[in-house]
């Protein structure tokens, strides 16, 4: 059982602007009785170029009547350019949502509006025609139409496409081709997404680098070494080279090389710069020291 909003029910039981305008400025006809849904939209412009009246005739379900009714309300007071921006999603949202299986009614409304605008802009000389190769012969849906509903509504399955434009809802023979269209558009979309470039770390002056190195030693490295009776002193910073001297137990530890790479260098790369590398000043290892704080 489908859930209908109160607004949709209101526009179904009390449709606005049903009928046809005499001598309209724009006429849009889409769908067909053979396919189960048909809509004719007409509108009239005032002296300021705004839509002052709009009416519809439709053959279809409650959702088709409601979406057609609300569409005429939405475009009144708009210029042609403003009305052209109305999407099928706008129509559905105006009604408080539509069941997914009935979204094709909002698409039909958008198509009728586009056909009416095209009719107006060409002075009634050009009849609205489906563009592109027909993919779904049961409902006369073209590849262009399928691609458009996929893009505009972020559709990802054949079932979604059927809900939005009926393609694939007849004999089902076109479902494989619809799946290929979805895959193609998803691949195209993936190519359009730029690779995320990590933000560049602000360039440090030499003084800032030395201060940050010393701070990291004091806060992140020294407490760990002191817990085991050792210590460390910053001797110098030359470019990306950090020169340190181990003190206490660390100065005599056989694993000093491991500590230097896996503790000292790792922490400095994490908190200062991933370009830093550490060297031990062994000559000062046994000399008296007064490490910087």
Concise structural overview:
The chain has 293 residues and is α+β, with helices and mostly antiparallel strands. The protein has helices at 6-13, 62-75, 80-83, 88-94, 103-121, 143-153, 158-165, 175-192, 206-226, 249-252, 256-271, and strands at residues 26-32, 37-45, 51-59, 134-136, 141-142, 230-238, 241-248, 277-280.
Shape: elongated
Instruction: Estimate what percentage of residues fall within beta strands.
Output: 15-25%
Assigned CATH class of the largest domain: Alpha Beta
Main β-sheet, spatial strand arrangement:
1-2-3
Key terms:
293 residues, Sufe protein. Chain: A, Arc Repressor Mutant, subunit A, GMP Synthetase, Chain A, domain 3, 3-stranded mixed β-sheet, 11 helices, 8 strands
How is this fold's topology laid out?
Layout: H1 6-13, E1 26-32, E2 37-45, E3 51-59, H2 62-75, H3 80-83, H4 88-94, H5 103-121, E4 134-136, E5 141-142, H6 143-153, H7 158-165, H8 175-192, H9 206-226, E6 230-238, E7 241-248, H10 249-252, H11 256-271, E8 277-280
Parallel strand pairs: 7-8
Antiparallel strand pairs: 1-2, 2-3, 4-5, 6-7
Helix pairs in contact: 1-2, 2-5, 4-5, 5-7, 6-7, 6-8, 9-11
Descriptive report:
This protein is of the alpha+beta class and 293 residues long. Helix content is 44%, strand content 17%. It has helices at residues 6-13, 62-75, 80-83, 88-94, 103-121, 143-153, 158-165, 175-192, 206-226, 249-252, 256-271; strands at 26-32, 37-45, 51-59, 134-136, 141-142, 230-238, 241-248, 277-280. Helix 1 packs across helix 2 (62-75), helix 4 (88-94) crosses helix 5 (103-121) and helix 9 (206-226) packs across helix 11 (256-271). The chain is elongated, with a radius of gyration of 35 Å.
